[in-house]
Amino acid sequence: MTKILENYAEGRWVKSAGGLSPIHSALSGDVVAETGSDGLDFGGMADFARKKGGKALRAMTFHERALMLKALGQAIMERKEELYDLSWDTGATRTDSWIDIEGGAGTLFSYASKGRRELPNDRILLDGDTEVLARDGSFIGQHVYTSMQGLALHINAFNFPVWGMLEKLGPTLLAGVPAIVKPASATAYVAEAAFRIMIESGVLPEGALQFIAGMPGDLFDHLTGQDSVAFTGSANTAAKLQQIPVIAREAVRFTAERDSLNASILAPDAAPGTPEFDLFVKEVAREMTVKAGQKCTAIRRALVPANLIDAVQEALSARLAKAVVGDPRNEGVTMGALVSRAQLADVRAKIAELSAVAPVVYGDPNGADDGKGAFFAPVLMRTDDPWKAEAIHEVEAFGPVATLMPYADLADAAALANHGKGSLAISVFTHDGATARELVLESGAFHGRMAFLNRDSAKTSTGHGSPLPVLVHGGPGRAGGGEEMGGIRGVKHYMQRTALQGDPGLLSKALGEYLPGAPMDEGTVHPFRLRLGELEPGYTLKTGSRTITLDDIEHFADFTGDNFYAHMDEEAAKASPIFGGRVAHGYLILSFAAGLFVDAPPGPVLANYGLEHLRFVKPMKPGDSMKVSLTVRSKSQRSAEMGEVRWAVRVTNQDDELCATYDLLTMNAV
Fold it and tell me: Which Pfam families does the UniProt entry name for this protein (predicted)?
């Protein structure tokens, strides 16, 4: 019995009231599912997202949202075999689906980890340092991020129904924004199954996620300036969506990841017989055959030195000949089918257009066809004059297709790569650092990601075409001009940056973090005697003083082996434009500072695990005395038993001049 996909709207599963469209198996052409969204109240879904989901998510801290993402990833992994079984009909091999399913769960895990490690256990994120706006420090500015109070509409592509959904949801949910997911129809049955797993996990607040199995109806008409749209697909569709009046009228945030004629460059130093030559051939062939070439990051243009084009064509053709196309469930098959008969027809049409300027040198675009499935073997094309073959820089055959072309020199290679007018990814195979630098300078502005691949990274590299959650995914120009993921950068896409102005005390209380210039609370209890819950930003210990002697400096030098001239050679230190005589080691100052503020017996402070933003501002000389101001800057609970305390440390001399400043990090008992 054909499965009828359901929509998830306003907290319940809803079948379409009619107008169902069939989805066909890429392997047999049989109808595997039907999809539709007739009868949905799209305005009601938007209101539900904002009023229910958004409110609930914004009430959670970054850490609580991160734990939610981890639970969602675990739910996907626990039921991954259900998704693998469904994915066969998309034409994907087990390896292809591993990227989609387990790669998608891995993206959630990555965001869960980064959310716990890099974001506070709070709902406000500070951005950058405080700006002093008044000479006496009584008026300051501080940039902050807060969650947008709208919804995120995610419109996804067919090629990665799970990963494509989860790579958008990870940063969105971590930002505290609810999402409405609209998958591509061709593989919507896999996306719906993964979505069900997340809903059934029970970890999502009501309204956090909704799902449209069919068309989005009039949903765009209900968007506001607090909402955002993230689209993955063709340039034509992206342009149509961006021209919807509400996008411009309400200044709706719009991110597009679209068509991309990605290039790969074999550098001049990568001659036959080098590891880089072999890696290039292997990677181009892999990018042509993984997901049957249906990857937004796949290599479409292979650029090689003119004198090597024949050798590359021979080696690449031999490599492609090893691909076994067929039903991915069968043993020995290494490449499955295109997603649909419609996609098969489109790829053939694009090859016909391209072959007018770049003849086919391997494969048969009109090869065997059973009239049911969408199987298609790799096709390699070649042009010997890429500057006159304009179509290869304009037309993308979204399948196992690439064009081989020569370049005259490195400048020519960069210009050809850039002639694609913007891409998601470019790869360069070289073992020469000067080559890499030149290409970064000449091509960096045209590509969202540059992968330099060679013998040194061959065993660990993820290759040309693998977007990673910690790196930005997107590109300029033709690629859409947007960015997704990139670690916490992607979270900020769904937040509003606001410049706050006010007095340090008020802003410190509003943000839950001590800001420079705010009043300090010099309590009577040593702060190391207070538990996490008892410490408040601004709580300060001011220590007594300690005089630094020449014996201290010489003992420290002897003990550590640090005999730098500024500490041990009076004449050389006097000649320095910085020191004017022997000075104390910076790390001696830090050590003495700890001796001044540390309370030794066991207590709530469990460990000192680092310091950040260390600056030595003014040297300290023998005879100078030092004292320390230790202030709770912020705190963030990390587990039921402990949390991080960030302390602002200021070391001053006998004249109250700042000598050193840094943030100390400790782990404290709750």
Answer: Aldedh (PF00171), MaoC_dehydratas (PF01575)
